[in-house]
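A.,

Following up on our hallway conversation. C-alpha cells first:
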C-alpha cells in the first residue's frame, strides 16, 4: 500500500477524480443533449399528430354532415315514394272503376243484342214452322252476322283487335 501510495500522489488522485467527474459531466451532457433532441422530436411528432387529429376531426365532421344529408335525403325519398304509391293506388282505383263501368255498359249492350237475337230466332222459328223456306237462309245469314258482330265487339272491347 505504501508503494502504491508513493506512486499515486494526492495530486494524481484529485486529477483522476477531476477527469472522472469531467467524463461523467460530459456523459451527462451527451445524455441531456440526446434527451433534448428526443424531446424536440416528440414535440415535432406531437404537432404532426395534432395536425392529423385536427384533419381527422374535420373529416369526421364532414362525414357526419354528409351522413345527416343522406338521412334527410332518404327521408325525403321515402316520403316521395309513399306519395307515389298513394298516387299509383288512386290511379289504379280510377282505372278499375272505369273498366268496370265499360264492362257494365258492354254487358247491357250485349243483353240487348241477345234479346234482339232471341227475337230474330223466334221469328225464324215461326217462319220455319210455317214452312217458309225462303226466309230460312236469310235468317241464318242474319244470325251469323249478328253473332260475328257480337264476337267482333267483344274482341275489340278486350283489346285483341
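Then the amino acids I'd put at each of the 161 positions:
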Amino acid at each position: 500500500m505504501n508503494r502504491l501510495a508513493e506512486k499515486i500522489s494526492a495530486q494524481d488522485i484529485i486529477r483522476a477524480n477531476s477527469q472522472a467527474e469531467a467524463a461523467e459531466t460530459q456523459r451527462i451532457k451527451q445524455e441531456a443533449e440526446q434527451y433534448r433532441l428526443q424531446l424536440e422530436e416528440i414535440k415535432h411528432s406531437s404537432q404532426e399528430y395534432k395536425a392529423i387529429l385536427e384533419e381527422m376531426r374535420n373529416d369526421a365532421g364532414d362525414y357526419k354532415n354528409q351522413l345527416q344529408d343522406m338521412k334527410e335525403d332518404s327521408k325525403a325519398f321515402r316520403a316521395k315514394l309513399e306519395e307515389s304509391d298513394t298516387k299509383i293506388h288512386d290511379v289504379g282505383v280510377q282505372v278499375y272503376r272505369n273498366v268496370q263501368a265499360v264492362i257494365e255498359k258492354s254487358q247491357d249492350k250485349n243483353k240487348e243484342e241477345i234479346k234482339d237475337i232471341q227475337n230474330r230466332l223466334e221469328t225464324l222459328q215461326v217462319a220455319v214452322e210455317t214452312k217458309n223456306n225462303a226466309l230460312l237462309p236469310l235468317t241464318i245469314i242474319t244470325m251469323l252476322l249478328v253473332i260475328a258482330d257480337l264476337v267482333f265487339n267483344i274482341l275489340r272491347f278486350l283489346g285483341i283487335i
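Residues 2-158 form one domain. Curious whether your intuition agrees with the design.

B.
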